[in-house]
Design goal:
The chain is mainly α and 408 residues long. The chain has a single domain, classed as Up-down Bundle (Growth Hormone, Chain: A). It has 14 helices and two strands; from the N terminus they run βαααααααβααααααα. Strands 1-2 form a two-stranded parallel sheet. The termini are far apart. The relative contact order is 0.16.
């Protein structure tokens, strides 16, 4: 059985060759290279290329351009299946990461970042679309939690090897980038040999879809992208630039994050199923407000590390945005909307790193206070999610309701 010789209905096949297991292994393959790249990125930029906030902002904006163009994935689906595009994306991700250390210049780093990012973002777009199509609505959040946990386990492998091996074997950036990207390519080859091609369920629209009734999903997605930039770009940069964290220390911090995700993500998925998307997201954004406000004034490297771990732990709750959309969506809209959603998610990502990179030069505090304000906007939006979202009941305008008039 290989991807090239056998076709299966995703709703019928069980066991280790099921679509859920495929999604888990793909998540692990992605994280083997991306986690290592993310671990080394800031140190590589500062120690090898002497980047400042200006260059790191430009590099991160370049990284987000493919995310902004994720809507184009729907046109690629005219040429290939979603599963095929997911595999091609993993191929580009692995090649981009493996090549990074061989181009130790500003423009070389920009180029390999672009290749890696095309693979990463188009993989993420396809993985989200396939998850929402293949996983049952009633248990999707729990299954997505397991997928995140497998990705976190792959992160642990990447971070653990870097933490142990960086000083012990005096590893170079070039070696680690090459090995990490190569591992993703090896797992990709296994996936193509071990899993069949899964047939599509509901035929997906092969055009861009923007529906007025999805506006709250779009707004939540946009704000999630803006909040993510404050964490991914500037919280990590804070650890290296202000507190002087070395590669193995950043790896240890990421190792803790991966361990938390591996343990907590499945539980968070189950809690979202139990409590619902609205309560889960309200909890997340209240917590994020406190985290970003604390980042703004932190002076202790230990406290900064604690905030970084707590901040990262909140990411798994973003499952609730995806399952909210799954419950309100027309099934044929899932693939095109996944591309549109990633584009919306990255609108802020294209300009925030550059603009806030310049702000960083004058006031890192202002960058994180802006993140706290973003958390409050997201909190207000999440309160509009109905307790039982479904098609035709996408928004709960709770503040417009009036008390019933007492019967006379």
């Amino acid at each position: 059985m290989t991807y090239f010789t056998r076709s299966e209905n995703p709703m019928e096949i069980k066991g280790w060759r099921s679509p859920a297991v495929l999604l888990m292994i793909m998540a692990g393959a992605m994280q083997l290279s991306f986690a290592a790249w993310w671990n080394l990125m800031n140190n590589f930029a500062v120690q090898e290329l002497s980047f400042t906030g200006r260059e790191i902002g430009i590099q991160q904006s370049i990284r987000e351009i493919p995310g902004f163009l994720s809507f184009a994935a729907i046109y690629l689906l005219l040429l290939m299946r979603e599963q095929t595009l997911a595999y091609v994306s993993l191929l580009l991700l692995g090649i981009g990461v493996a090549a990074t250390g061989y181009f130790p210049s500003v423009w070389g780093f920009y180029l390999t970042t672009l290749v890696m990012s095309i693979g990463f973002h188009y993989y993420e777009t396809m993985a989200q679309s396939l998850s929402l199509q293949w996983l049952p609505k009633a248990t999707a959040a729990a299954s997505m939690g397991k997928i995140i946990a497998v990705g976190a386990f792959a992160q642990l492998i990447a971070y653990g090897l870097i933490f142990i091996g960086w000083k012990t074997f005096d590893l170079s950036f070039t070696t680690v980038f090459a090995v990490a990207g190569g591992l993703t390519l090896v797992v990709l080859a296994f996936l193509m040999m071990a899993f069949p091609h899964f047939k599509e369920g509901v035929a997906q629209h092969k055009k861009l879809i923007l529906r007025k009734r999805y506006w709250l999903y779009y707004a939540l997605t946009f704000m999630a992208g803006a909040r993510r930039q404050i964490f991914t770009v500037f919280a990590g940069f804070l650890m290296v630039e202000k507190f002087g964290y070395d590669v193995h220390e950043v790896a240890f911090l990421f190792l803790i994050n991966g361990a938390f995700n591996m343990v907590l993500a499945p539980k968070i998925g189950k809690l979202i199923v139990h409590f619902g998307e609205r309560k889960a997201l309200i909890f997340e954004y209240i917590g994020l407000f406190g985290v970003f406000a604390s980042y703004a004034f932190v002076t202790s490297p230990e406290l900064a590390a604690t905030l970084y771990v707590v901040d990262h732990a909140f990411f798994a709750i973003a499952i609730a945005i995806k399952t909210y959309f799954q419950k309100i969506a027309d099934p044929a809209d899932i693939a095109p909307t996944a591309g549109v959603a990633f584009t919306i998610n990255h609108i802020a990502a294209v300009f925030i790193p550059v603009i806030f990179g310049l702000v960083w030069l004058y006031s890192p505090t202002a960058v994180f206070l802006s993140g706290a304000a973003m958390a409050l906007v997201s909190l207000a939006l999440s309160s509009l999610i109905p307790s039982a979202p479904e098609e035709g009941h996408e928004v709960d305008w709770w503040f417009r309701r009036t008390a019933p008039t007492p019967a006379e």
